Amino acid sequence: MSGGGGHVASIEAAAALDTPVHRLDARVKILGLVGLAIVAVSTPVGAWGAFAAYFLILGALCAVARLPARYVLARLAIEIPFLAAAAVLPFVVPDGLALALTVVAKAATGVGAMVVLSSTTPFPVLLHGFERLKAPRLLVMIVAFMWRYLHVIGSEVGRMKIARQARGYEPRWIWQAGAIGQTVAALFIRSLERGERVYLAMASRGYEGGTPTALVPAQALRAADLVFAGALASALLLVRLVVA
Amino acid sequence: MHIPDGWIKAGTAAASGAVSLGAVSASLIAAKSRLQERQVPLIGLVAAFLLVIQAIHIPFGPGVSAHLLGGALAAVLLGPWLGFLVVAAVVLVETSGLGHGGVATLGANVALTGLIACLGGYWLFRGLLVLAPRTRRGFLTATAVTSWMTVVLASAVGSAMITYGGVLGAGQARPFIGVMVVAHGLVGIAEAVITTAAVGAVMTARPDLMATRELLPATGAAASAR
Q1: Which of A58, A224, B97, B142 has the fewest Cβ atoms within 10 angstroms?
Q2: pTM, entire model
Q3: Residues A9, A115: one domain?
Q4: Do B97 and A84 touch (CB under 8 A)?
Q5: Is residue A128 in a domain?
Q6: 57-116 of B, contacting A, C-beta below 8 A
Q7: How many domains does chain A have?
């Protein structure tokens, strides 16, 4: 779980940079990168030129956003279990090699697009982007609290781990499942009670649902946003026309 | 359990996406009238908890990586509609924030973890409660059995999507589904332990927050009511 915490911290550090990609409007980035992933999925098997173009677009965005190569590769590693499954394809499906490479390219484009999105947009800004794209209010609220309470759980886990180690106990084996269950139970209640205090504090400061606008000022689309949207859309259209 | 982009056919993705979209719309309407303000912290906590436990991947050899789901946990603590929305929100964040699960397969992944494991899990749980004795032990046993069954069921449907409706093809269906179900049979045990622990804790400390509080055994609820 501590690994997951470090993961979130590295994403937040990357998103805190200030580059032209970071400054783009969240709405444009959401629609553009989701669009890229969808176009990639609909690309026919063996259209290597098209996949090269998608990687080029993503690579250029990473470069402009100054995302370290090591960081991007670490984030792409989430695909590794499926790489192993793809390695089986050539042996079980006719024309399996081309299919396997295509599937890997599609998955990598999808993950890459989402890595660029989340690594260049701080979470509150991303959430506000979804909100301005008319995502259901209740869903936005659930996600907002999820993010806030993720940090509550993370810090409670840390405190409980230190306390347990201080008492000289470190359960990790199956016959210690009872202790792990009790830890989960205690963690759940402690986080819930701290979460309730956090919520009351928010409510008493005037929280009424939605993203605080002071944090993320609503702004109109700027020229750079329109240029990005136009360039990405025409690039994707061109790639698909050439492939077809 | 989170299918990446490119692994299922467009038709499978579109069909499961349409079903999930319908379920989200229905849940938004159903949950809005049931939502109480004091539930908000529990909603956020369950959502964050699901995000954490779904990030723990257990490798089982080539292409089979299993993880916990938490659908039953959301169903028992928050009820079917709010629980389903929480699961859908978790999958959305995993896709857009972590790259866990594909963009075009979002609907399929919501269907697996939300529709089957949470909404389906809730009705399975209600069915099991009829059979179980009305005691704390009976309630928690039904919770544990639901957790195990939803994980196994979701893995079976997910691997059917990848084989019959995806790139692996029907020829590979039997071995693939078999391996996935066995792996998730083991993961289901961990799921049952964690879900039962969390549900048991809330039952003891804050039964008033549970959406299923009317179903709790009378003694347990009365003894610890604050």
Answers
A1: A224
A2: 0.89
A3: yes
A4: no
A5: no
A6: 57, 59, 61-65, 85-86, 88-90, 92-93, 95-100, 102-104
A7: 2
Q: State the pLDDT at residue A1.
A: 35
Determine the straight-line distance between the first and last CA of chain A, rounded to whole angstroms: 46
The ipTM of this complex is 0.88
User: Residue A78 is encoded by which pair of tokens?
Assistant: 């989430």
Range of the domain at A196: 135-204
- B28/A138 CB distance under 8 A: yes
- From B219's Cα to the closest Cα of chain A, the distance in A is 21
Residues near A101 by Cβ (< 8 Å), separated by ≥ 6?
Answer: A86
Residue among B84, B103, B96 nearest B20 (CA): B84
Q: What's the pLDDT at A177? A: 66
In chain A, whose CA is at the least distance from the CA of B60? Answer: A81
What tens digit of pLDDT does each residue of A173-217 get? 666 667 777 888 888 899 888 889 988 998 898 887 666 666 666
pLDDT digits (tens, 9 = 90+) for B77-130: 999 999 999 999 999 999 988 888 889 999 999 999 999 999 999 999 999 999
The pLDDT value given to residue B113: 93
State how far residue B40 is from chain A, nearest Cα, in angstroms: 8
- Residues A52 and A159 placed together within one structural domain of the fold: no
Contact B51, A149 (CB under 8 A): no
Which residues make beta-bridge pairs with A155? none
